[in-house]
Amino acid sequence: MNRPRRTVQAITAALFVSLVPVAFAPPVLASTQTTVVPLQHMKLDLTDREALRTGALYVLHRCSACHSIQGTRFSSIARQLQISNSQIQRYFNQSGRSVHDTVVSTMPADVMKKFVNMTPPDLTVLAKRRSPDWIYTYLKSFYIDPHRPTGVNNVVFHNVAMPDVLANLQGLQVPIMKSGWLYGQRKPVAMGVKQLTQGTLTPAQFDSTTQDIVDFLTLVAHPHAKERAMLGPWILGLFALMSVLSFLLYKLYWRRVIMPTRRWWHKQ
Amino acid sequence: MKTDPAGKEHGVMGWINRRLPVVDIWRDQLAGYAAPKNFNIWYFFGSLMLLVLVLQFATGLFLAIHYQPNPNLAFWSVLRSIGRDSRWGWLIRDMHVTGASLFFVLIYLHIYRGIMYGSYKKPRELLWLVGVAIYLILAAEAFLGYLLPWGQMSYWGSTVVVNFVTAIPVVGKAIAEWMRGSFVVGAPTLNRFFIFHVFLVPFSLLALVLVHMIALHQVGSNNPDGIEVRDDCNEDGWPREAVPFHPYYTVKDVFGVSIFMVIFFWFVLYNPSGWGFLLDKLNYVPANAIKTPSDIHPLWFFLPFYAMLRGVPDKLYGVIAFAGAFLVLAGLPLLDRNPVRSIRYRSTLYKINLLVMPATFLALGYIAGGSASESNMVVGLHVTEMFYATFFLLPYFNRQRSRAATLVWLVVLEAVVWMVDYWMYAIHAHSWSLMLQTDWLPALYIAVVLLLALVVPRLSADARVPEQLTMGGLTH
Ligand code: HEM
């Protein structure tokens, strides 16, 4: 038998043999039985300054009562929103902290402990930890649940400790129950929500407000997006160019090396 | 450099060289190193690792300046002091993180190159062993470094791994406490991990790499044909089928480096979390000692070992299986004593075995990426056995065996597999039905290979090694 055929056969056979364990794995891996609710998709826009400022207003006025954003400072936010330090102090910062301070929740820790019985997670890199779509879906998916201390539950975050802090804008909602998996058991789970009462915003307005909040949180999580986009083409271009040039140089040098003409698979 | 008739070098470099042989070292060991002509793409990875090593040292230095090894500060010092407050800190950090992961991509490819071309065989046994030591030290370095950002996954990953150490009889608990400096992972742990990560371990790595290079230059490079080029020298003692490293392989390596840098910076600038492989998403949450995550994983390059640790029913045997993986790797010069080095001239069945080896390793990683369900662990156990089987089949191929000998090998290896399985069953009450779902994996694999060898002896026959180098691949 000649060599290329032998090699090809070996590779095919090995692929076949090695696929066996992999082929066995999927049903096994699928056994974490928690129903995955499909996320709602939103179009991110990190360039719309008005939207980002609206988002910042909501986050710094409402969310930062409970949540800290310790990775960022008021002055950095001002820079990202392209407003002055005095503007951010006057209209956005309600904590009384200095403009170069980090954003720390305004509610004292012991009050928070009593209120929600935990320290709410920091929002700095939440958009990376989850995803913008997840936060978007989360903020729109609170529903009435009399069994919870806060009176609400959430479709994508079962038994969440956070109250529905946007309820006055959105109105109240009830769940759409479907059969699904929860902690390894088959039972009815909330797969979506239905509007029960009207809020102060129309559904379209609320939707756009939520998007603004998510836009802003995404901006906070990715403070160097601009630098990355600026550096990327240059650095990659530089090394791509170097690759081409060094390849030509390599070919040039190796021209004088007398290479064996035999191929290893022609041996024998 | 000019020399006078007495062979004395002139100029500043001559002056220096007579006192410190920098020029001699450059001439004899670097520029003048005789490298076989037929290196292929697999020979890029060693020099690429030297580059990454330098990058890790350089970026690590700047990270250490701003990092705070204190549980209350660590997470935010990485995220804020390094990531946001210091100029270009984010770039340095993403380079360090990407470098760490790509280091393992490179080392796995480098090791597999050595396996394919039999580079561990005489006279390169010590070179190989130093390599395995480097791999261990690099793994330690990565493990230590992963705790530093003090995220949820850092914390719990370290907790789980150190807990496996407690399985070692008699001294295990003491070692684990000594590693942590405490009964749980905490402030003392973070402090010592930091100091080991930036001081002791990287410099040991550096020293070992130097030893690696010295050993390499003592024995010379192997090549894809596995032919000893130093056996065929001209009157000047220069191997006929070698070229001087400089300029031939320096230009080639510059090409390799350029391509690598495109990939490297693509990750750094466009995909710093590497789809969650380079940076685990849970590490965006600060460590919380009272909130155990539902799925705890090490970083991707340890996943295959994690599958072994989890898959073997008893903690201690799990640790043995894990350590054994390093041992069989180090033991390759003993396991495979066939005089033919390169996979190119080995038998078809040997080739299959050498492709199944990394395939099982990858499959183990895939399995460990899933949940810690019982069935998942059992698959892990059997793929671990299959991984080991690829190593213990190696001695079979040392020469072409008679039918009778093949039969004996078949019976013995099968017996070992089933005994190990029974033993594992006896230790831990996985139900037989669950065990049997994948039990046949290693058993069938060994059976297929050895039965084929029995029925079609041609498949276990090595080819004749050519006298001179040949070319393969796509170039020339
Ligand atoms: C920090 C990690 C390492 C560095 C920087 C490194 C560097 C190098 C370099 C520059 C070479 C020569 C170029 C080449 O053949 O690619 C080489 C060769 C070699 N390395 Fe490594 N190495 C490392 C880890 C390892 C490991 C983990 C092993 C094995 C377990 C290993 C085994 C070998 C062998 C056997 C050779 C000779 C290969 C041949 O000539 O075919 N090395 N190494």
Overview in brief:
Chain A has 268 residues and is of the alpha+beta class. Chain A is built from 10 helices and 6 strands.
Give your account of this protein's structure.
The complex is a heterodimer of chains A (268) and B (476). Chain A has 268 residues and is an alpha+beta fold. Chain A contains 10 helices and 6 strands. Chain A has helices spanning 3-29, 49-61, 74-81, 85-92, 109-116, 126-129, 132-140, 167-170, 203-221, 225-254; strands at 69-73, 102-103, 142-144, 152-154, 173-182, 185-195. In chain A, helix 2 packs across helix 9. Chain A starts with a helix and ends in a 14-residue tail after the last helix. Chain B has 476 residues and is mostly helical. Chain B has 3 domains: 1-31, no CATH class; 38-274 and 281-290, Cytochrome Bc1 Complex, Chain C; 297-330 and 348-460, no CATH class. Chain B has a two-stranded antiparallel ribbon with strand order 1-2. In chain B, helix 6 (125-147) packs antiparallel against helix 9. Chains A and B meet through helix 1, strand 1, helix 6 and helix 10 of A and helix 4, helix 10, helix 14, helix 15 and helix 17 of B. Protoporphyrin IX containing FE is lined by residues 43, 45-47, 49-50, 53, 107, 110-111, 114, 117, 119-120, 124, 127-128, 131-132, 134-135, 138, 209, 212, 216, 221-222 of chain B.
